[in-house]
Amino acid sequence: MTAPVIEALGVRKRFGDHDVLRGVDLAVAAHEVVVLIGASGSGKSTLLRTMNLIERVDDGQILLSGTDITDPRVDADAVRARIGVVFQHFNLFPHLTVLDNVTLAARRVHRVSKAEAARRGRELLTALGLGDKAGSYPDRLSGGQQQRVAIVRAILTDPELLLLDEITSALDPQLVGEVLDLVRELKGRGTTILMATHEMSFAREVADRVVFLKDGVLVEQGPPEQIFGAPQHPATAEFLARVGH
After folding, report:
1. PROSITE patterns attached here (predicted)?
2. pLDDT for 109
């Protein structure tokens, strides 16, 4: 058995007096798509942020391909260079073109040549329906297009893991579909993905495994057909009934 791409072992995180993560254990295998569901405040985003070392854990370990990245001696920037992250807000640089936005990290962090980064960037943009936007600036794009550009930026360097945090929540409903289509395509390419979403129908369709969090605790996990069709825990059933999956 190969080591999971990412593994949380007893992860705890507290903000002030509030325990946001209370001993979470979770592993994601290579090429697996794992979807986190749960109410706002359940700990989904915080868990993702600990995995990219944006938030440091208070207890427990996080292993990236078997290496403990919560060791304080670890180079956080080197870890982040191995992980692609997309948040609900696109965080594109307004003064840079689309192509410059998607290639910046490849050039600055991964030391890919400008020509090679541009070649890869144009190739990915074209493959994902944005080839004609390479020279545009972000304010000329729709929200859905901006979010797709942010995803291209995250995958350009072939990260070991892609973290997606509520990437459709800031979008108009008609733009959600095009972003989720891109995630489907990434799944088809074998990308390892851990994502938090409120889109239950999408979670049911694209996830290999669905994980339900409540109040910082991993309550239940399993294949989508089990979680959505026959949840084992009353809290899972209650949540799904409330969101009308």
Report:
1. ABC_TRANSPORTER_1 (PS00211), ABC_TRANSPORTER_2 (PS50893)
2. 84
Closest CA to 239 of 45, 21, 228: 228
Rounded mean pLDDT, 8-17:
97
Phi, psi (deg, nearest 5) at residue 26: -155, 135
Measured torsion, CA atoms of residues 81, 83, 84, 90, in degrees rounded to the nearest 10: -80
Average pLDDT, the chain: 92
Backbone angles phi, psi at 153, to 5 degrees: -55, -40
| Statement: the pTM of the whole predicted model exceeds 0.70 | yes
Dump the DSSP string for the chain: -PPPSEEEEEEEEEETTEEEEEEEEEEE-TT-EEEEE--TTSSHHHHHHHHTTSS--SEEEEEETTEETTSTTS-HHHHHTTEEEE-SS----TTS-HHHHHHHHHHHTS---HHHHHHHHHHHHHHTT-GGGTTS-GGGS-HHHHHHHHHHHHHTT--SEEEEESTTTTS-HHHHHHHHHHHHHHHHTT--EEEE-S-HHHHHHH-SEEEEEETTEEEEEE-HHHHHHS-SSHHHHHHHHHHT-
Report residue 104's pLDDT band, with 50, 70 and 90 as the boundaries.
very high
pLDDT digits (tens, 9 = 90+) for 173-200: 777 787 888 888 898 989 999 999 998 9
